[in-house]
Amino acid sequence: MSSSLIVTTDDLLAMLDRLLLHKLQDYHQDLWLEYQSQRWDRLYASRNAAIPFFVDWPDESLVSCFESGELRPGRVLELGCGHGRNARYFAGRGCQVDAVDFSKEGVAWAMEKNEPGQDISYLCKSIFDLDLRQPTYDIVYDSGCFHHLPPHRRPGYLGLVKRALKPAGRFALVCFTPDGGSGLDDFEVYRQWKLTDDRGQGLGYTSSHLREVFSPGFEILSLRKMQEAPPDRKLFGKDFLWTVLMKPIP
């Protein structure tokens, strides 16, 4: 988008990105996605910070899906892999993993923790820059990426998940409940020109909102709150998060 003229869908998305950014006090990038990548770089650079997901353990819901047989080893695309805690679990279960994150710091941290023999390919880029021309993945996994996207990026997200998944594949999502994320609805995001609340949290979704967003393209197999992990198990679980398992509708 070289001018204020909107011709294509990409022009419209870029315009909305920029309007969100112009309302931020620390605005310093042209595009929302570029701003977000630098924001997450700053977060992941603080490796000793008391951040709940800065652990080495996989999501309790992910482990539960493998233990129940709802998920089986195959080729995995992880969206927003961060420092790789879930990617390493997938690899340990015999999966071939493509793990994507646009934070250089997050990907560097993940690669440092990689264990010999694990089949993980880390990609440092925006999920919207992935070249997905045919469905090649048995599992698409997202733990914490979706709820940080502005509403106008949601259709593109849904499209890339559909393009990535094989017809019999599974899509597993972890995202904020209203208690975990901001209380802003989609219209409020643009009325206030902000995505997060004072805590810096992303959007919080009700169960009915999730069904409305995903049901046109996916059959929801399970939708529940995450369980707090018991002390004797090294698992990540917070009850302010939803965990959703879906399969694509042809």
List the helices and strands and how they pair.
Blueprint: H1 9-22, H2 32-45, H3 60-68, E1 75-79, H4 85-92, E2 96-101, H5 104-113, E3 120-124, E4 137-143, H6 154-164, E5 165-176, H7 186-192, H8 207-214, E6 218-225, E7 241-248
Parallel strand pairs: 1-2, 1-4, 2-3, 4-5
Antiparallel strand pairs: 5-7, 6-7
Helix pairs in contact: 2-5
Structural account:
Helix content is 32%, strand content 20%. With 250 residues, it is α/β, with parallel strands linked by helices. The chain has a single domain (53-248), classed as Rossmann fold. A seven-stranded mixed sheet has the order 3-2-1-4-5-7-6, with helices on both faces. Strand 2 (96-101), helix 5 (104-113) and strand 3 form a beta-alpha-beta unit. Helix 2 crosses helix 5. The protein is globular and about 50 Å long.
Structural class: alpha/beta
Tally the helices. 8
Uncertain parts = 24-30
Query: What does the largest sheet look like?
Result: 7 strands, mixed
CATH topology group: Rossmann fold
According to DSSP, the number of beta strands is 7
Mean pLDDT: 87
CATH superfamily: Vaccinia Virus protein VP39
Strand content: 15-25%
CATH architecture: 3-Layer(aba) Sandwich
CATH class placement: Alpha Beta
